[in-house]
Amino acid sequence: MSITDTVTTAARNAWALSFGAGIEPPNPAPSTVLWDEPHRLLRRYESESASATTDSAVLLVPPLAAPATCFDLRPDQSLARHLVSTGRSTYLVDYGDISFADRRMGFEDWVTDILPEAILRTSADRGGVPVDLVGWSIGGVFALLTAAANPELPIRSVTGVGSPLDYNKMLGMPQLRAVASLTGGQATTALVRAAGGIPAPLVKIGYRLAAFERELARPVFLASNIARTETLAKMESIDRFQAAMPGYPGRFYGQIWGRFILANDIGKGRIELRDRTVELADVRVPVLLVGGTADVITPKAAVEAGLRTLTGSPSVTYEVAPGSHLGILAGPDARHTTWTYLDKFLAERD
């Protein structure tokens, strides 16, 4: 590229970021909404060229407090598009926005209602085929607990990408528990109950703080890459993802705070719901776990803990991928690491 072209591109990108509509408009993968109810929208991704070639379906399971677009940030950062391109029938359950009215929703709503319903509808749409669950972050925990609590469901396998399975391995836990011990852990939960949960703006701030180095380096990154349109488009897709983050329901956050952060029940392989105890040892299907080398939100050791607690699974495969929490799912190396691991894992089930 000549100097003139570089300057022109840089000027155009600077204008698009500062005053225009952005570097690249959203371009979601083609899909059809099969079911649309609060917190349980079910979407089927459509192939632009070929029909499905496998006798199974993949259901993508997002976490809470993160938009379902995590699986489809942009065309070359889309696990959904990749799965469809390999001949797999691919579906997504989308929880939508979380408001004060949802403050009583907790893990049991996902584990015994929302996800079982999505799994059955996904299977039925393909004539009763088994379903492979692929969850990111807490979405992977949802998927594992759902498989453990509902052995009758047509689940063929579970994949957890960056899924926290031992909070003793999470960064800052000793310090956080020390602070919580001063109030018996009640001050935080009381504030959350009063607010009905964690509102979306606070979730966005928390995510940015977790990626503080990225935020700090942003001005230098922009200056260094102002003429690299593709690089800026990837940055923009992450910014758009962060801007769309929903909140946490009050009961759900209370469970995370009390049972996961303070008591580390998940690290002990179990979680208490309203009317039952769910044991990770009751997962009876093959499991794939992927941890990230640079993941500060869920360190890879917290993912690897599943090798210890998923004792009822016929096989637990643990892989490591370079990248951050979102990077191992949709970053520049994901196609050659996480997606490849998933392709191999699913092919072994076919």
UniProtKB/TrEMBL annotation:
Q: Which residues cross the membrane?
A: none
Question: Which keywords fit this entry according to its UniProt record?
Answer: Hydrolase
Q: Which positions carry the signal peptide feature in this UniProt record?
A: none
What the entry lists under SUPFAM superfamilies is as follows: alpha/beta-Hydrolases
Which InterPro entries is this protein grouped with?
A: AB_hydrolase_fold (IPR029058), PHA/PHB_synthase (IPR051321)
* The organism's place on the tree of life at top rank: Bacteria
A molecular function (GO) held by this record is:
hydrolase activity
Q: What is this protein called?
A: Hydrolase
Protein species of origin: Nocardia rhizosphaerihabitans
